[in-house]
Amino acid sequence: xxDTVVVRVMRYTKHPKYGKYVRTHKKYKAHDxxxxxxxxxxxxxxxxRPISKDKRFKVAQSVNI
Length: 65
Description:
Elements: E1 4-14, E2 21-31, E3 43-47, E4 57-62
Parallel strand pairs: 2-4
Antiparallel strand pairs: 1-2, 3-4
């Protein structure tokens, strides 16, 4: 997985029966040219052409929070 980062996107969904908001997440593989990102860094990703079997996104920029 050269030049690849795994980005976890977290979102809140409402439970259909009980109405409580539940935290769910999904993992996306994204292309990071040069492997410049570190573990725990927040980034934004954008959709692009298929780069490999699993990679359909690329890292756009780092998010400073």
